[in-house]
Amino acid sequence: MFKKRENEPAYALLNDASCQTLNRYGHTINTVEAGDVRRDQSLNINDDNSISANPNRYKQHGFYFNADNCIACHACEAACSEKNDNPAHISFRSVGFVEGGTYPAYQRINISMACNHCDDPVCLKGCPTRAYTKYAEYGAVLQDPDICFGCGYCTWVCPYNAPQLDPVKGQVSKCNMCVDRLEVGLKPACVSACLGNALDFGVIENIPVNRVQAKTEIPGFPRTDITHPNIRFQQTRTPQRDMSRVDQNPVKYHRQQNSESFNPVVDMKHGVEREWNWTRLLGSHENAHIAFTLSAQTVMAAFLILLTGCWFEPVASFQSSSAMMPSLYFMFVLISFGLFKLNMHLGKPERFYRGFYNLKHSPVSREIAGVSLFYTGLIGYIFFAHFNHGYTQILQILFAGIGVLGAGFGGYFMYKLYRIEARPFWNHWYTAASFCATGLVLGSLLLAVIALLFSSMTVGLGQVLLSMVVVGLVLDLAGLTAHARSLQSSSSEGAASFYLQTTRYGNAYWLRNSLLVVALLLAIYMLLSTNHTVFTYSVLTVIALASHIISRALFYVVVIPTTMPGAFFWKNQGFVEHAREVGLVDMPQLGVVHERHHAFNISELVETIKTTTMKQKFSQLRSIFTG
């Protein structure tokens, strides 16, 4: 337990004498009622089984931030990092700012932010490993890094950038509300260290002494309706109509006339010139997701198309042809590659099995379960396809059903996990349209190319497959059009994502659109003329594949989350990229590091086996696999 000093200053002590019953969202402030079995239990902090006598132990606590007083000294960051022994590149609490106006009416608002221990924590529901728990004690949302396997999904869904994915350790950690200090009657370390008395802490809705406001938002703070965060603000100075971020995100906050609320709008700070930026587009951290989603959607759709042989005679003839088994083998290899890339993308890939832990809530767990079910069905279907016995045909049909069930379940949650309110660019039906279009187009072309290679292509099969390609391309283009219109008319970070897509990656964006149109026209021509040659299909396949790779890369690269603003250097992705490019990353005081995934080194593994005892082998092997 945290050791409380005898001479702790008064400002560091919890002092909530009275509390309200409900918070402003209508939720009860009591986390559990009297007599509940969850009361009077120890948190067992560092194996200390004592229980705090704090009368407000089972009430929701939260932070109070007075923007009028914050001078951006970063003492709160330093105190937090020192207490939690964080490296320079990880900070549970960070200070950013927004600015507006011009000299002499320039204005700057500093914002100090950590985890808000929300009433409805989306990180808890989204985490596939169940690393998060919302405790009855103080309403704290705590995360266990030892359970985490480093997928980073919680960092996607959190609107406030509270969970921190460590690119060195490959795991997430975050603010723990300093529950060890709360248990002995002390406020969190960041609050106690604040020089300007800008930070405070206590039972939520309690306004500290000498404060007059308890707002739920200030300029730069993301929307509150997603999670109902437990933080309140004071900002008595009237802000400028437009407050801009100073980090790379092209977002500013605009106050409507006769309103105190600020809405995010596009800040065209990067100009309107179209660029290529191939290196950033095709070299992003999310390339594993590009490989996985494209391969999984292609194989799932191709498998489902194969099973339509009972309705389409041309597909039935393909099933009985020499191309059937090679197509199944290629599908197996392709989805195996996608799954391998996805697993190695994890911070701790050896813990992949933990992805099934949260089937009750997490769309990631459900996607993993569905895709695994499909993978099992595909393997079983391929295995029993080698036999012609009556009972093996029944088993093959059984595994086909498993594959269909897995494709439907996994495909649906592959889409649902991207419907994230904290990422408006993804939160649109176009995501589903894009995923379905990928399957229809690439899945159909996969079967067509294999049929041609094994001389199994017929006019009827070509018409069936090309019809699906046309439907997929039309769906993709219709979704793109609707998505663009929705983003351009929105007041959210999604509009800024669209701005990035048409400027920083504008040339790639229009190339993708042109390739889709060319692919559609070529597919229609081939369908009407029954021109089914290896050359025409190869050209169509190359064009379609290129357009979908660019499209999926844009999908991941341009998304802007509803996160807190950063500073010029700190919490600024633009500076992080610059530091890695020019070598500043080697200066640890800048708080930037290279990404290091924990793919083991084969030569290191062999050397370990040769030269060590069994006990040393186990220890060194563990270090190789866990980093």
Q: Would you mind describing this structure in some detail?
A:
By secondary structure, the chain is of the alpha+beta class. Among the domains are: 278-345 and 418-557, no CATH class; 600-627, no CATH class. Helix content is 44%, strand content 9%. It has 19 helices and 12 strands. It has helices spanning 75-84, 122-126, 153-157, 179-182, 189-193, 278-282, 287-306, 313-319, 324-345, 363-384, 390-416, 430-453, 459-488, 493-502, 506-529, 534-557, 573-582, 602-611, 614-626, and strands spanning 61-66, 94-100, 107-113, 132-134, 141-143, 164-166, 171-173, 199-203, 231-234, 242-245, 251-255, 262-266. The strands form 4 sheets. It has a 5-stranded antiparallel beta sheet. It has a 3-stranded mixed beta sheet with strand order 8-1-9. A hairpin with a 6-residue loop joins strand 11 (251-255) and strand 12. Helix 8 packs across helix 13 (459-488), helix 10 packs antiparallel against helix 11 (390-416) and helix 13 (459-488) runs antiparallel to helix 15. The protein starts with 60 loop residues before the first strand and ends with a helix.
Give the helix proportion (percent range): 40-55%
Residue-averaged pLDDT: 90
Shape annotation:
globular
Radius of gyration: 28 Å
Query: How much of the sequence is in beta strands?
Result: 5-15%
| Tally of contiguous helical segments | 19
Count of distinct strands: 12
The main β sheet shows up as: 5 strands, antiparallel
Q: Uncertain spans, ≥5 residues at pLDDT below 50?
A: 598-612
Structural class: alpha+beta
